[in-house]
Amino acid sequence: MNRYKKWILSIICMMLLFFASVAALVIWVDPFFQYHKPLEKFPYLVDNQLSQNPGMAKHLEYDSVILGSSMTVNFNTDWFGELMDLNAVKLNYSGAYPKDQSNIMKIIFDSGHQVDKVFLGLDVTTYTGGVEETKYPVPYYLYDDNLINDIQYLFNKDVLLNYILRPMADPDKTDLATVYQSWWTDEYYNIQWVMHNYEQPGAVAQETPADAYLESTKQNLEVNLCPYIEQNPDTMFYVFFPPYSILFWNDVMQENHLEATMAEYQCIADTLLAYDNVRVFFFPNQEWIVTDLNNYADISHYHSDINYYMTECFARGECEVADSVQMAGELEKMRDVIERFDFDALFSVEY
Q: Residue 2 pLDDT more than 80?
């Protein structure tokens, strides 16, 4: 009986030692950056926005942040250093909803960093949803300060195998300047690829009321964005509307919600321009970008050259909207681009 008890005790001790070793390894490497900044020589794999952004917001060194959806993934943070003398970090989420932005901004502003500038790509299509809606399920145990629920991180097979052991076996350290960059390489940015994969929506006869999106948009602004602007008056928020291609506007026309979309743009701009620490940039009516489908890989995702151009605009103050009246004028220019574009010619060609 004593021998049996010793055997059981040995097994338990070995298991405890194993789990303690696993936890110690995860804490030491910390591939999700929950406890410390990256080790200098470890080849970190950074490819999981939901799980790794919170830790990077807590422990990387930065003075500025790039936020947004996949419309922002092709920014290179080095450009912000070269053009604006900023040490920026990119913390975007593919398909980000306003709540996703709120989740990461809470961590950013609670982290103790002195945040000089926030560059936020704002997608009007996501502001029509619920204020608590996120694009994907969020691993909130990585977003809070509760150490007890970190067990889900410390004893996670995926963390151990794919983010510690695999990088050790096949080192290929992620460049944080270009982290999360789109998988599309240069050859995908052409009109043939875009049109080959484009499916035009069916025409909708009934027009969406012009005020249809305003209530949800105002609620999302009030809950998920404006509080961070108001609580951080020393941070300048560069909020910009990305330049979706002319095919996006074709979808808008086909689905018959042009007036509602225009009203939503105006509503957002009017709200944000009321703050002294917000600068608004409007890129959708840049005709040379949006009407040339060789700039795109689909109806909305543009080449990194466009991201660089936008960075130059932030640095020089170009494409900036000063007030509500100017915003209305920019939207009229957008209408003019849509009205003058020859959609018939575009769809008459076989790609």
A: no
